[in-house]
Amino acid sequence: NLCKRMEVDCNPDELLNKTSFEDDAEMRDFEGMDGKDMRLEAEAVVNDVTFAVAVMYVSKKLPSAEDVAYINVETKERNRYCLELTDAGLRVVGYTFDEINESLKTPYHETVYSLLDSLSPAYREAFGNALLQRLEALKRDGQS
């Protein structure tokens, strides 16, 4: 599919709405996020990808802070995960909602797109379909 071919690591709408003149502040990696509240970052992460998962929300049970937040996600395959968001990135910390398994040593992902791409083929398909629909809409708009 188009996303895999392009090896894109961003939201399809962001990809197509970006221009080289725009401020790329939101595209910086996690190392440049000093001063950001992870609770707000977590909400933004959720809003970016809810179209491609079954359920996703910031945990209300696990403690969020300026430097860490937890996100519950259920993929379209019905697999549940608890994700940790820190300056280092996102990683799976549990295999059910609101669970932190200290013994898990899962890798950090720089973006939620990369993490979900590794967990869910249905996410990858939904992302690719959204990108193709957006491209078709742009093509139609350009022809009118």
UniProtKB/TrEMBL annotation:
Coiled coil: none annotated. InterPro entries: GSKIP, GSKIP_dom, GSKIP_dom_sf. One of its GO terms (biological process) is regulation of canonical Wnt signaling pathway. GO terms for molecular function: kinase regulator activity; protein kinase A binding. Signal peptide: none annotated. GO terms for cellular component: cytoplasm. Residues 38-138 form the GSKIP domain. SUPFAM superfamilies: Hypothetical protein c14orf129, hspc210. It comes from the Eukaryota. Belongs to the GSKIP family. This is GSK3B interacting protein. The gene is GSKIP.
